[in-house]
Amino acid sequence: MPAQLxxxxxxxxxxxxxxxxxxxxxxxxxxxxxLPSGNGYTVWPTLAGRHIPDLVALLPGAPEVDDEELAS
Length: 72
Fold this sequence. Notes:
The chain has one domain (about 5-70). It contains three helices and three strands; from the N terminus they run βαββαα. The protein has helices at about 15-20, 50-55, 65-70, and strands at about 5-10, 25-30, 40-45. It is globular and about 35 Å long. The chain starts with 6 loop residues before the first strand and ends with a helix.
């Protein structure tokens, strides 16, 4: 799968840098280290309440997807 079609969830700056350099859509979710907002990635304070449509929405040119579509 091309990296441009993937989402990487990282909890560190090196992880975010690696995901971005690979071409993935990067999401930072801090665990033990604070992650500042940055250019080229999204920061979510937690994954709680997040679902697949939230991830898909971050992909460039992604269609809208809702939880009901995924359940069918």
